[in-house]
Amino acid sequence: MTKILVVDDAEFLRVRISKMLVGDGYEVIEAENGALALAAYKANKPDVVLMDITMPEMDGLTALREILAVDSGAKVVMLTALGQESVVLEAIKSGAKDFIVKPFERDRVVGALQKLVG
Amino acid sequence: MTELKSLFTEEFVDLLVKISGEGIVNAAKGFAGMIGKELEVKNSSVKLVKLLDISKMLGGPEDETVAIYLKSEGTIAGQMMLVLPFDKAMGIVDQIMGEPIGTTQSLGQMEKSALQELGNITGTYFLNYVADNTGSFVRPTPPAVMVDMCGAILDIVIATAGIENEEVLMFDAEFKQGDLSTDIQFWVIPDPKTIIAYGAK
Amino acid sequence: METSIGVGLGEIAVSQNRDQILVAFGLGSCVGIGAYDPKKGIAGLLHAVLPEPLNSTDSESTKYVKNGIYKLMDQMIEMGAAQERLIIRMAGGANMLTSPGLSKTFDIGTRNIAVAERVLQEKKLKVISQSVGGNTGRTFRVYVSDGKMTIRMIGEKETVF
Question: What is the domain class of A3-113 according to CATH?
Answer without folding.
Answer: alpha beta
